[in-house]
Each structure stands twice: as C-alpha cells, then as structure tokens.
Amino acid sequence: MLKFITEIFKFTWLYNLVKMLVENVFNISIDTQLGSSLHFFIYDTVKIIILLGIMIFIISYIRSYFSPEKTKKTLEKFSGITGNIMASLLGIVTPFCSCSSVPLFIGFVEAGIPIGVTFSFLITSPIVNEAAVAILIGTFGWKIAVVYVITGVIVGVVGGVVIDKLHLEEQVEEYVYQMKVGDSEIKELTRKERIKFAVENVKEIVGRVWKFILIGIGIGALIHGWAPAPILAKYAGPNNPLAVFVATIVAIPLYSNALGTIPIAEALILKGVGIGTAMAFMMATTALSVPEMILLRKVIKPKLIAVFVAITGIGIVLVGYLFNGIAHLLI
Prior knowledge:
Layout: H1 2-8, H2 12-25, H3 33-63, H4 68-75, H5 80-93, H6 101-110, H7 115-127, H8 132-140, H9 142-165, H10 174-178, H11 191-226, H12 229-236, H13 243-251, H14 258-270, H15 275-287, H16 290-296, H17 302-325, H18 327-330
Helix pairs in contact: 2-3, 3-8, 3-11, 5-7, 5-9, 7-9, 7-15, 8-9, 8-14, 9-17, 11-14, 13-15, 13-17, 14-15, 15-17
C-alpha cells in the first residue's frame, strides 16, 4: 500500500498522461519549445492543485488546534532561545498571511512575549507554509523539502535571537504597549468541526492563491521552454558566487508567496540555475515582501524594520550558499 501511494505522489502517471494529451490531442511534440512549455504548464498546474488540496486539508486540521489565541498562550510559557525555537515551530503549523502580522504582533507584545520571539514567528511563518512543503516534495523530492524546512526554522530562530540581543524594544511604536487586545475565548472544536474547518480552509486558500500559482507556473513554463539554458547556467549557476546575493536582492521588492515562486524555481533549476540561488529567491520573496513591511511599519519603527530585513536577508543568502554547496547530496 505504501509503495502504491509513493508511486502516485511521484506523479509519473500524470507526466505521461499530460504528454499524451499534448502530443496526441494538441499534436505538438514535447521536444519542441512550445510543446515543452505547454506540458510544463498543464502538468505543474494539475500536480500543484492536487498537492495543495491534500496538504492544506492535513495542515489545516492540525492548525485547528492552534488558534492565534492558543499560539499566544503557548509562547507565553517559554523564554530564551527555547521561546525562539517554539515560535519558529509554531510558525510552520500556523501559517498566517502577512495581513495578520499587525494584530498578531500587537497580541504578542501585549502578552509580554519578547520581541525576538515574536520575530522568530514572523520570519518562519511565511517561509514555511502549509502548502509549500507538499509542493516542494512533489517538485524537488523530500530531501530538498526537509532541508528547506530546517533552514527556514533556523533563519527564524537566529533572526529572532539576534533581534532580541540588540534590545530594540524602543523601536516598537509606543501605542502598541498601551493597547489591550484582551484574550478571546479558546473554543475546543469537535472532530466534525475540525474537518469542516479544514475543508473551508482548502476552499479559501486555493481561492486566494490560484492566481499566484497560475502566474508562477506560466512564468516557469516560459522559462522552461524558451530561456537559454547556457546563459542562465553561466550567470546564475552554482559556480557564480554572486548569484545567490543578487537573487535575494531582486526578490525583496516582489510580492508573491511560496506557491507562486516554486514553479519558477523549478524551471530555473531545470535550466541550470543553482538550487541555492532558486531557494534564496523563494525565501526572500515570501519573508521580505514589501506589503508585509508596509503593514509592520504600523507597529514598528524604520530602524527595526531595517534590522529585520538585514538579518533575515543575510540568513537567506547563507542558506542559498548552503544549498548550492550540498546540492550534490540533495539531487
């Protein structure tokens, strides 16, 4: 049974099915640029939607045990680096979007949770979300997915610890400390309610991100079929020491999520771009997006935002070099 499930999630069956569709129905060879792009687009769209639905349901069911109120109460129990580790781990199973950053930040500060612990949560949460892990497994394999999760947590923990050591509490807007958001009642859900919550989350999240997915897959399909592999390999390959740094800088102004960037990363890697370069691009796009910075500016001052961007950016660049360095062990 396990072997059967494993074969299904290798998606070889889907690859061959889409190949038959492109070549027999559309009468286009997948060895051509157009056929290659078309096959990539259809194959990745179906694969990602399947993985998206399954993983969102599973993680949403788990997430039903970790409401924002319960997350806050859990973090209140830990201090020091243990608090940073717990915050980053909770960031994995409680992947709130950037629009939730401000109320979460206020709630954490109001509860007396250290600034560094709060930032560990805010760094990890967008990088390692409920669907990215499944899509990474389906796209790149479990080794890359596991290293991605581990490094995402490490960036969150280290970033939070450094921010805590800098003692930047005065860089939080004064009104935040004066606010009292109070505690909402934590309602225990039945199994039926948790399943309903998971199903609703699947509908809501897929409905919210499908545009990003299609755009990402579309860009990936164009890269896959038309981008010149030798040029990409030369300037963005693992042997170019500046590629990871440039990819991180370029990604910061962009606005997307891991779901929209994974297909692009996949296409780039297939064209010879370094794994670390692609991973750094993904992480920077999700963790350092301009919209999140704008929202965070409502509760923290520019100096702390600059420190947050600098520390997280450095961490992502180092992760990129790590991925490039151990790429031969992951593929």
